[in-house]
Specification:
With about 575 residues, the protein is mainly α. It has 20 helices and 17 strands. Among the domains are: about 80 residues, no CATH class; about 120 residues, no CATH class. It has a 3-stranded parallel beta sheet with strand order 3-2-4, covered by helices on one side. Strands 6-8-7 form a 3-stranded antiparallel beta sheet.
Length: about 575
Amino acid sequence: MLSRKLSFSLSLLILITCSVGAAAQQQASGPGLAPIRQYIANGWDTLTRSMTDCGSIVDPKMKVHPVLYLPAGFPVPPAVEKMHADCNVEIQHLPKPIKQLGEINTSAIQPHGLLYLENKYVVPGGRFNEMYGWDSYFIILGLLRDGRIDLARGMVENFFFEIENYGALLNANRTYYLTRSQPPFLSSMVLAVYEAEKQAGRADTAWLARAYPFLLKDYSMWTRDPQLAGSTDLARYYDFGDGPPAEGLQDEGGYYRDVVTYFMLHPEQADHYLVEQKQGQTQERQGASYSIKACDVVTTMSRPECGTEHIVRLSADYYKGDRSMRESGFDISFRFGAYGAATHHYAPVCLNSLLYKTEKDMDQISVLIGKGPDAKVWRTRAATRQSRMQQYLWESGRGFFFDYDFTQSKKSTYRYLTTYYPLWAGLATPDQAAAVAKNLTAFEQPGGLAMSPENSGMQWDYPYGWAPVQLLAIQGLRRYGYNAEADRLSHKFLSTVIENFQRDGTIREKYNVVTRSSEAPVAAGYQANVIGFGWTNGVFLELLHDLPKESVEALEKEVLKGKSAQK
């Protein structure tokens, strides 16, 4: 049974989530853009967590008694002692030091719990009550736009702490995430904070020098096995864990049965991901077995007349792909095969664009901190990656960057919004940028850019648009001079967020950009469209800042006109 203090903490977290919307609905009566700007400004504090806050420890995904884990041998800080007393939190140390991912068996850590971080951090919202790897880049951009430099810098310092004590920049600071990272935005975070401090009159090159070895270690993880995509010299997503992830079993009820059912209905896509277990056969296996009859895959109900019962399970390779898909951040899309099952078989456009950006950033940082010879090495690495991406990922006939299946030596044909990442990173040629810009029609909808024209029923495909990829695509277009397109797309997405805010007083995790609504009835995975929401808040501020003054004024007039019409 949960203790009273834990029950109180969980209730408090739910209350905070709900009150964000309630407070914003009251604010929504103000003029123009002021109400949504106030919502975002207030949201940074509402979404901030720390090791002195009982609400930080609660995990809506797992619902277990709270445990806070410290690195092996790490002294217990006074704030943690106080949390132990005030919040009834159990304090434990990890069983051994961790130098890199894959060194610790997370299934042996029971119960799962929160990993200690030294500084305050902003969480996305809702069920995501921890500091996430790639969410934090977009949150940090928003914090910097709102002048919250110290909070942003503290979050970057937390990633240094993760790399030093937990082996990598983690998916998020929970023990069940100790097997995987997330898309590598750390160098972009570091430079964003550095530039903001520089503009504030305190260019801290000593801090850049301190950041350098952490950036190097983070980068190095992606450039050695098993993170390498075969012989391509490119990288892949790869989770070091095996079997179904803990949060998938606890938080996404029935998900893996849905996957099994899909593969039964689509055997041509099942490949080796579905394994039938014969009666009396004993096999070493990971994950649950599912009893499926022929009618199950049609009606989802078992009847006596259905015939033979099949005992099936998902293969170890399926679970490796499923976990790696979660590391990619795009969970769930059919971009890497059905249910992302083949994620670890691809060299992705997004990941390798981010690593090219990291190499260019490290070149810049090396110059700033006086490491001239290092800068030359980084330039060479960036040029090599750019060449390999041109070779393996660019499809000139169609005008898209596609992911590359290195196990079958062929490009994907799945059109995905990450085709704009090479523009954002600056590695596309002008002709490639022109071709990709021309293909906006594949993605553009009334409310912004859909992740894909493919309607798989998953939340990271059509008809959904997500703030972080909107921003990267739009900034990529601006980088190559497509400002009219960038302005138009910014207006579409910003107005979608505003209109939904006016209706219910909240900002959401994702939007249906076809209907311009926050309704998101996805077919699999977690079903909520979470309120908060950290990265949407940050992207809203960034898109608004990049719009020309006259476009912002036009947007504000539309907001006022809309309010007048509502009255």
